[in-house]
Structures are given as structure tokens and as C-alpha cells.
């Protein structure tokens, strides 16, 4: 599976006590345009899995080429992945990360256990993109062969 290149996202939510949770996901895709629905896959053994199993809302942050550190932060096991990170609350209270290429605020509509993962289906209720002048620009961060890569400019 490491030969498949994919975009990189960080998915966040707020737990029942308001504590933020998040994970890096390269298993993300658009499922439907009407209504706009996406899916993301979460390892059921992840520390944050209980929070995402219970949460009604989540946010998907599509990362830009300059956000390898952000991807790495949320890919590691850590008791507080949000330490020292400035976030803002989304419309549902879900923590939103700065400088993503795009951010989708979503309501979870279905959870499906498949093998060792939980597939989260979520309907998009709000979407925003970074402008060209913002730090992430519009070049996506990619994951391929167990490493992060930036998409080069075509020529």
C-alpha cells in the first residue's frame, strides 16, 4: 500500500469534556457531492479513537506542502498533540488548525468498522480554503513510500 500516493489531512474533534483530539490521515476521500460527504479512516487502536467514536462533529484539514511538521505532530502518539498550538473553535466547537490548504467542518453521519480501522462518513457543513498569499498556498502535502513529499510545480 505504500506505493499509493495520497494527500495528507489532519482530522480533529473535541471530546465530551471539550478536550481536543486529532490524528493524521492519508485515507481520505470525497464520497458524495450532494450532499457533500467525505470519509476518513481511523485506526481503532489509536488513542483518540474513543473521542471520534463518540463525537458528532469533526474537522478535516487538508495540509499544504509546508506542513510536514503538523502532519508529523498528529501522526505520533502523544498525550497532548495540541500543546503550544494556536487553534480556533469551529462553529461546532471543533478545534480548527491554522494555515491548512482547506478546512472542512463536518457532522459525522455514519461509522463503519472495517478490519482494524473505523471508517468515518461525515457530511460537510462548512468549507474554507487558504488564499494564495497564505502560508500553505495551494500546493498539497503528499504521503508516498512512508514519507511526506511536496508536489512540484508542473512545467
Automatic annotation (TrEMBL):
Residues 1-150 form the Flavin reductase like domain. This is Flavin reductase like domain-containing protein. It comes from Streptomyces bangladeshensis. SUPFAM superfamilies: FMN-binding split barrel (SSF50475). The keyword RNA-binding does not apply. InterPro entries: Flavin_Rdtase-like_dom, NADH-dep_flavin_reductase, Split_barrel_FMN-bd. Signal peptide: none annotated. PANTHER family: FLAVIN REDUCTASE (PTHR30466), FMN REDUCTASE (NADH) RUTF (PTHR30466:SF1). It comes from the Bacteria. Keywords: Oxidoreductase.
